Amino acid sequence: MQCNTQGFDAAATRACQDGHLREVLRKASTVFQAKRKAGFDTFPEAEAHCRRAREARARTLFRLPELLIELESKVTALGGRVHWATDAAEARAIIVGIADQANVRSVVKGKSMITEEIELNDALMTRGVEVWEADLGEFIIQLANEPPSHIIAPAIHKSRADVAQLFAEKLGETGVDIPELTLVARRFLRERFLAADMGVTGANMAVAATGSLLLLENEGNIRMATTCPKIHVAVMSLEKVVADLDDATAVLQVLPRSATGQKLSAYVSLLSGPRRAAEGDGANEFHLIILDNGRSRILADPLLREALLCVRCGACLNVCPVYRAIGGHSYGWVYPGPIGAILTPLLLPDERTDALFRACTTCGACAAVCPVGVDHPKLLLELRRRHAVTSGSGRASAAALAFAASRPGLFRAAAWVARTFDPDLKRLRRCPGMGRLARYAATRALPRLKTPFSRRWPVLAAALKKGCQNV
Amino acid sequence: MSDDSRTNILQRLEAGLGTLPYPGCLPAPDSIPSPLPDAASVAVQHGPADWRLLRTELTNLRAELDVATTRAELAEALKRLVRAYGIETAVCWEHGRLASIGIDVLLAAAGVKVLAATCVEESGGCRALRDVDLGVTAADAVFLDCGAIAVRSGIGRPRSISLVPRVHLAVVAEEDLQPGLHVLPELLRAWGEEEGGLPSAIHLISGPSGTADIELVYVQGVHGPLALHVLALSGDWAGAEGHKR
User: Fold this and answer.
1) For residues A227 and B159, is the Cβ–Cβ distance under 8 A?
2) Given an 8 Å threshold on Cβ–Cβ distance, is B158 in contact with A134?
3) Which residues neighbour B211 within 8 Å (Cβ) at sequence distance 6 or greater?
4) Which terminus of chain B has a lower count of CB atoms within 10 Å, N or C?
């Protein structure tokens, strides 16, 4: 998926004016939050489970090199092949190479954000390979040629009428109600699963101690993509490895609950290497792509490495007042919401992403629901601080304020002028040279300047006198 | 290309971790892992209460449970299943438990054409099952705290049998009952020791396939089975079966 983060302000403004989108987002966030709450309300020792999951993820970060080496050794021993990719281009080249070597003509994909990140579909399609997204939501947005708008529900912005029209145009078959539309997709994709040469998935986790891949889903598309084709390629960002089965279970206990409120997703697949001799199905070839693409840089940052704890449950999106107002597309890249506002600037340091980390009210709702305790506002504020330091933005106004504040007479005079001519600070934005402050003020209601104490005193004195008389 | 990348990535990770202090918000790398919290509210009772609890969980998951204590009840439960879903063809795992209760014979008696699991390999994988109505597997564990069943694939036990047919029937026994997911690592390790390493595929299945990707409206049955039916063998079946594969 191509980066379009520089268009954030315009996209967010458009999204805010889209009544249908606002309604869809309101409904979705309400439903997801209610499900998550129900999932955790009935979860004995929920806090202990979350602490344990955070511990598992933290252990991963501190032992990443050794865990990845152990994973590589175990996967290889099981008959799989491990490939290392420093960036998206290398990951694409590796997968295209595997496809070329095996003369792959058709690929089915399980839902994965990492393959969006590396823009895999285009790379395969330009080689003449047919690529089908198999998760229903991903399939819908593939047909519509749009990016996903939510980590868990990629086509959340599409109504049933949109989908019906899309299916009619693209598949030549459609339905009226939602079960009917789902059946149309099932029939269409089942033929693709059965004919596919290669299945591509992401990875929710990989267990270093056993060389196993852990995949979670509800639809069965990932199981189909890993069972029917002869080749299975899994793309994993390097921080998804966990030390052992205990740590994997610790994360498994909280991930589905936090995502959809389910105790467990309908299917959890634990795949250890390719199929064994004499087994009837499963991929004959298994390739694991370990992708860095900027993660090692994040790990080296002691203040921001916490972002790598994320398990992609999407809970932070559903509670975020900004995401709920603007939706996922406004963020301009793969990862939306609070975690996207952190990850995107870190993974794409050369792109213009400063609007993303400013799109946060620092309300803290995201941190409160994160099952592994990522403190999103803290990380966003750190990104803002660094941007202010490197870009020099705000230095002039801060210097002017400091100059005035250290001269009480000048400060009082300036405040008097402002109170007299612009008590609500509405005209501030029109002042020449206000630059960023004027842009900031253009879309916000600034706090009104207070009346001086000397003018408020008669009223206060009268009230006090009255109160004393009553006593 | 990949060798250089491997070296570069590992060097960057080592350098990143080696030169920086560990922030206080994360546990130290050498800290001893905490034990997994257990689901203290659930315990295996070895009686009817277990099946009641499992029924509640499976109902929440939109799956069905039949409990059979005798061979006659088992035959009757299978007949009901065949009628309810209009089953005409079935395929069964090669598994000691399924063989010992004669599930293929019982299904045939209910008018179902039963295929052997070898058809999957002989016909080139999943395609063999595209028109099969019912896939029958055993389960290796049932977790009472969430209703999930664990299915271990292997030789004679293709993965696709619990995936491609439109109905999945899983046969479970009392010995499979487990209190909760917190015992999963222990179970997996035991299976690994039993088979000389983890099997190529283990699936935890919690209900039929489903989606809510259009307008968040739940629809049962997408790419996997449209229905999950669990058949529990309750009581003393030792005379009728050897159970283990």
Assistant:
1) yes
2) no
3) A136, A137, A182, A218, A219, B218, B219, B222
4) N
The residue range of the domain holding B57 is 41-233
Measured between its terminal Cα atoms, the distance across chain A in Å is 71
Residue B48 in domain:
yes
In-domain check, residue B226: yes
Pair B91, B168: CB distance under 8 Å: no
* CATH code of residue B134: 3.40.50.10420
- pLDDT class for A439, splitting at 50, 70, 90? low
Residue B232's DSSP bridge partners are B67, B172
In total, how many domains does chain B have? 1
- Phi, psi dihedrals of residue B121, rounded to the nearest 5°: -70, -40
Residue A232 backbone dihedrals phi, psi, to 5 degrees: -120, 125
Closest to A332 measured CA to CA, from A319, A321, A345: A345
Measured in degrees and rounded to the nearest 5, phi and psi for residue A29 equal -65, -35
Residue A159's Cβ-side half-sphere holds a number of Cα atoms within 13 Å equal to 8
Specify the amino acid at residue B229. H
Q: Which of residues 81-110 of B touch A (CB under 8 A)?
A: none
Task: Indicate if the pLDDT at residue A238 is higher than 80.
Answer: yes
Complex-level ipTM beyond the 0.90 threshold:
yes
Q: Are B23 and A85 a contacting pair at CB < 8 A?
A: no
Q: Which of A136, A212, A226 sits opposite B211 (nearest CB)?
A: A136
